[in-house]
Amino acid sequence: MLSIGKLSRATGVKVPTIRYYEQIGLLPEAERSSGNQRLYGRRTQERLAFIRHARELGFALEDIRELLALADDPERSCAAADRIAGRQLAAVNARLRRLEALRDELERMLAHCSSGRIADCRVIEVLGNHALCGHEHATGDDLSA
Amino acid sequence: MLSIGKLSRATGVKVPTIRYYEQIGLLPEAERSSGNQRLYGRRTQERLAFIRHARELGFALEDIRELLALADDPERSCAAADRIAGRQLAAVNARLRRLEALRDELERMLAHCSSGRIADCRVIEVLGNHALCGHEHATGDDLSA
DNA sequence: ATAGGATCTCTAGTCGCTATAGCTTCAAGG
DNA sequence: CCTTGAAGCTATAGCGACTAGAGATCCTAT
Asked: Which residues touch strand C (CB under 7 A)?
């Protein structure tokens, strides 16, 4: 049985994050030692590794909750898992296209900037005047970069 | 002078977001009508359009705060604006590389899934066993996709 | 005059953690 | 056996960038 710290080192998931996953029910409530400290066995370690890998692939915690439920039930059809992964792939592709457009516009902005006075700065100018962009950008929900 | 709703329609920024920008000091406190409703002139409208465009390019609000300060001072050197945009470009490029790796792994997972039982599902299997991936992924701070 | 949309303030919720405070427990060294 | 310091515990608050809701007020059109 591993302490939370050892589990953290073994999986690369930080201690408070492990406790958080338990709190939101992604990990089962841990067994406790006589002194009330969490103890973990192999099963939970594997579960946590699964969660971590899925997070690295960008799955949302709610998706991971579903994937875990599927993984727990090996007789079910994996169509649902496929659907979740397919949705994730589509989201990643959408994000890729959007980021490529942003990269292009940032490069254009920077290429034209002569690093002189602000009054002549292409960066500031383009930001202030959308008509100077080469294209439309997404207007909606995906503004983080 | 525009009401907040008209400013919202004119710029594509939602009403609560405009109020939020005022609250955090990104927009100046609006003038008020006799009935205490916000009124906006051309200057604020331009400022908001600038903010929106920068957000679309993925700049953080704190970066935008700096860029706005620079835009307000046309005699200054635009080296600082260049630096901010360059940093943003580097972040976008890093994110692009990472997303491409994710896309590749998701595609591999999906390509090998025969849509049969969970027990044979490549998607679940790869998530559970990191050794099955073709590569390392980022371990750190950029897990959203 | 009134109906209904727009606006006001304030609070709380989202996601996935991360940080802090103030406590208890555990493991190693003397 | 005792001490010390690391590691653990709970609970709460904060991050970024909004979004949603409640309940009150205002403005406009008929």
From this structure: A 14, 16-17, 20, 33-37, 55, 60-62; B 3-6, 8, 15, 19, 30, 36-38, 141, 143-144
Separation of alpha carbons A123 and B73, rounded Å = 14
- Alpha carbon B130 to its chain centroid, in Å, reads 30
Contact: B118, A67; criterion CB under 8 Å: no
Q: Which tens digits make up the pLDDT trace of A49-97?
A: 999 999 998 899 999 999 999 999 888 888 889 999 999 999 999 889 9
A106 with B76: Cβ contact below 8 A: no
CATH of A4-59, one of 3.30.300.20, 3.30.70.920, 3.40.50.2300, 1.10.1660.10: 1.10.1660.10
Best CA proximity match to A96, nearest among B145, B139, B56, B142: B145
Checking ipTM against 0.85, whether it exceeds it is no
